[in-house]
Design goal:
This protein is 26% helix and 22% strand. The chain has an 8-stranded parallel sheet. The protein has a 7-stranded antiparallel sheet with strand order 1-2-3-23-26-29-28, with no helix packed on it. It has 15 helices and 30 strands. It has 622 residues and is α+β, with helices and mostly antiparallel strands. The longest helix has 20 residues.
Length: 622
Amino acid sequence: MRTDGQWIKDEAGRTLLLRGVNLSGSAKVPQTPLGASHLRSSHLTPELASFVGRPLPLAEADEHFARLRAFGHFFVRLVVTWEAIEHAGPGQYDLAYLDYLRALIEKAARYELKIFVDPHQDVWSRFTGGDGAPAWTLDVVGMKRESLVDCGAAVVHAFHEGALPTMIWPTNYTKLGAATLFTLFFAGHDFAPSLRVHNESISEFLQRHYVAALCEVARSLRGLPNVVGYGTMNEPSAGYIGVRSLQHAVPGMVAKGPSPSPLQSMAAASGLPVEVEVCEFSASFMGTVGTTILNPNGVSLWRSPTDDVWHREGVWAVVNGTPQVLRPDHFSVVRNRPVHFAKDYLKPLVLKVLEGIRKVDESALIFFEGPPMPIGEPPPWNDSDPKGVVHAGHFYDGMALMGKHYDPEFTVDTVRMTPVFGREQVQAAYAEQIHSLAAHLPSIPFLLGEFGIPFDLDGGASFRSGDYSAQEAALDGYFSALDRNLLSGTLWNYTPDNDNAHGDMWNGEDLSIYSRDKQTGTGDVYDGGRALSAVVRPYACAAAGTPLHMSFSRESRHFELRLRRSQHVTAPTEIFVPRYHYPSGFSVEVSAGSWRFDEVRERLWWESEPSDQEETLRIMPK
């Protein structure tokens, strides 16, 4: 694959519309028996954690890859964490895991699945409430992992008493654990120059190991023709970079539970009990509901007082018995200039990853993204920058994702920050917001790296009723938005070990389009799939020209493709036509040329003479 302006193209010059899934939600955690006791032990002895078998055991690969092929999801965003590669210590790679990855991707090739490797993280690490970075990254900055929860620096599922509040994990982005690590990773040389490791700034040390780990993956996969590229970092966060007020809570994806300001977080991490606001976010209410005491037992996060990095840097101190900010612009101004996270810190990392990967695989595409919208933006990309890059931002209906309730008649437009009412207006808002995301960098291709809907909406009502119509409506809106904008996308997600009790096996999420508990034992390739009327759909995989229009109606099952035929492409247009929607067959109308259909591969080839004319193809059920 190669990039050509806003398009991704194949070796024949055809324009590609890539559709697929993220594999998988449970790849964020080690491959070990599920249970609170084990989750806790894997946090306490992370060096022994093994990710071999994530996202799925090799013995099950044929079943799941055959299902993805039947779904038409030929493009896989393969979730790989830094911890999985380098959990034992800096420079110590898990060779068994790397061998497993290669064997898994070799199997995927037999099912025509293309892969791009996603170095995934959420809120930095499992040890700060998410996934991604190894435990030693916390050790090297002087944090005591066992104190993160007690001092309010993270909400960690494995150590949470009782049921984990719905979608509380994103609040970790603004808590001290993740916010400090992101700040040190991207900009420790500017904001914590006193923190050095072996004569390197902390940012140089961490980034060097991060990029080296990704390059080790690339070396282990070198030569596999179905590996098309690598991501740079899933949903990177600015941490405290750019924060102008340390005395007010930093805006995040969601405000839920204890919501300290940066100053309150720093004071609590130092061992001071602090009173903070408590917030609530649900489908029916958003706002402050009271206060609580953070770190009531006075536990320190730091190994020693000198490890307290923000106190040592003079950002804050206790004055007359009260925590006070000493340097209010510490994170917002460097060398008398306001900082810009995407331009000053994120783009240099993208370039480092690109340079490292291209030394191993010179043809690899590089997929990058910014913080989730509307919190941040992608790094700028100019004509003078390296080629072969793809903007891979994410989009979700925030009300449905965070509130676990989907209303087809209502959403919030996160671009305009305005409410949207009406079914057609909601669908149009999806398309407009995704278009706006893609338009940030119009000169390079865009792939919607994540989109999806929880299957445990409204307390798991769908499990009890077997009715997934809400999820079907939402996913149909997402896919229709991709069609309308002629964009590629990878759905979040497909989790092979999903079940109703544990969801995607991570932080209470349940967005998988497959579940073991949905299987009936028929042996049919669709068995276990969820919301398939929206998920499985026809689309143009490769167009012999420039796509102008593509649409599919779930109700009528009519599909239409219009393109401007290229004079320089002799290969046919290739369309995935699933038997799921056309069990009794279909008819085809073309404005030019002829077509043929391969029933086994479920592919339709449309051939016409090279020209610069507009041409149309329509598919209708018999």
